[in-house]
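ok so I'm stuck.
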Amino acid sequence: MYNLSVPENIVAIEPSLCHKKYIKGDTITSIKPVSNKDQTYLLTMKDSGYYVIQISSLPDLIVLEDNKIQKGFVYGGFYSPDADLILYGFKSDYFFIWNETKQFEIVRKICGGPHRQWSLSHHYEGSNLRYRFIFTRSSDIELVQNGKFSHPDVLAAGLHGREIRDMAVVDTKDPTNKLLITGSEDTTIKVSTLTKDGNAKLHWSQRQHGSGLQSVHCVNENYIISSSAREELFLWK
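replied:
not stuck anymore, here's the structure
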């Protein structure tokens, strides 16, 4: 981390903070600001991991989120106008754009092996994602972009892919909604809002357990504890 508010006659700027091996994983593929007000950044990792990190005024780094996607190598990400986390990258011979918040694939395009050259540009028109993906394949240059019209993302949002083993319900400030935390055999913990009409709106999927969840319990209004096989026990804030 460097402080750029220095006199103009200073030739070399020394780092004000340097962390080595602060986060685990493979190569960092991108660092993008996601909130200027709170100085929050999204880091994506080549080994399918990603981090949301906040810079404090000390300065210091605070890891707000440490997670992994289901598949592939992550090369970047951004947030949608609805605050969904969108990640993109490659798996095998195809490129993908993935909605991490709602857990579904937006785009998949076969684009060849690992020696490709590529570029992605994107923007939103209202809530609709517009993208342009260009890449080299053999001796060709190919361009992919979405059309003028878009279709609904999903007909009905899903939850877990395998048996739900346990759940916990937490009261919120809104008396019509409750926070629903579920643990499943698919090794994920999911955070949803349980509305008065019985619907569950998914907000987040956390992948830290290495085996199927056994139980999820509320400690208090701020903490959840979860357990799984392989002697795993996690405390979540």
